[in-house]
Amino acid sequence: MTGIHREQVIDALRPVKDPEIGRSLVDLGMIKDVQIEDGTVHVQVELTTPACPLRARIQTDVEQAVKALPGVHQVKVAFSSRVRAAGTGMTSRTPLPGVKNTIAVASGKGGVGKSTVAVNLAVALAQDGAAVGLLDADVYGPSIPTMMGNRGRPYLQNDKIMPLESYGVRIMSVGFILDPERALIWRGPLVSQLITQFLNDVDWGELDYLVIDLPPGTGDVQLTLVQRIPLSGAIIVTTPQDVALADAVKGLQMFREVKTPVLGIVENMSYFICPHCGGRSEIFGFGGGQRTAERYDVPLLGQIPIDPAVREGGDAGAPIVVSAPESPTAEAFREAARRAAGRLSVEAVRKPRKPTIMLKPGA
């Protein structure tokens, strides 16, 4: 092919923006390679997360920009991904070794399905190709071992606690250590010590995301976390009813006070679809999550329907994104996980970065 050079392709791609971050793919260093051969242009795009919610749009925009060049007959876009560490605000806190992003999943009150959301978000991110860990910090009600179908025992290796693994997610919970029928009767200092040990003494390895399932409310565990490590972001789980929303707002405000970005709200148990007539019922009210998100200027990451399969999968140790991956509920969880990952990508590139274009010679 004559008359066109890779520099022209790069120039054509400069106006193309990451639709969520709002900056040029070239300036963000997301164009990793350009090859030109016999009228075909091959473009390698490095996404900021394998769970990119707008991959199809990026592909379309890249194809259209390059096809506008004279002499281009075909454009082939290939994707890779590299998760970047999001900004952490308070730099005095030491990040966990090897962990790029820590996501706190919180709720103002119990009974809203917070652990179910945490489990399905973590597994959904892993299914998209991310390296994911899940820390069960709900020490008084550890449900992750049951929901993830793992009753193993952690072991020590090189003086580190090795997490267990289910569905491609590395998991740690006090439920792996205690008798499942035994209540944890500990005061705040002991709970804080346990959480600190899970953070410092567990060999999480290299993770793109560590999802942390917090206990309800704004107590000792939450304070320990925000004091010990820089949280990349928080997800608030609620139901549409006013009582749950009022408590959810308290959790949202707590994270803002400690300078942790709120990635968004997940409205669980949003509605019920009758399996017989197909009618939709808003059992716990309608639109509460959306109104709260708009009022406090945070995204509504997802509205998760009431689905008996969620309860069945949780009891059986098979999250719905695994047991019924094609269901609307599983898709709602996947979309929420991708939107959260997208929000973290935005946080990661808030500060201007020098463009990094890596082109192979001899196009």
TrEMBL record:
One of its GO terms (biological process) is iron-sulfur cluster assembly. PROSITE patterns: MRP. One of its GO terms (molecular function) is ATP-dependent FeS chaperone activity. ATP binds at G108, K109, G110, G111, V112, G113, K114, S115. Keywords: ATP-binding, Hydrolase, Iron, Iron-sulfur, Metal-binding, Nucleotide-binding. Coiled coil: none annotated. Residues 6-77 form the MIP18 family-like domain. It comes from the Bacteria. InterPro entries: FSCA_dom_sf (IPR034904), MIP18-like (IPR002744), Mrp-like_CS (IPR000808), Mrp/NBP35_ATP-bd (IPR019591), NUBPL-like (IPR044304), P-loop_NTPase (IPR027417), YlxH/NBP35 (IPR033756). Homodimer. Binds and transfers iron-sulfur (Fe-S) clusters to target apoproteins. Can hydrolyze ATP. In the N-terminal section; belongs to the MIP18 family. This is Iron-sulfur cluster carrier protein. It comes from Thermalbibacter longus. The lineage of its organism: Bacteria, Pseudomonadati, Thermomicrobiota, Thermomicrobia, Thermomicrobiales. The gene is apbC.
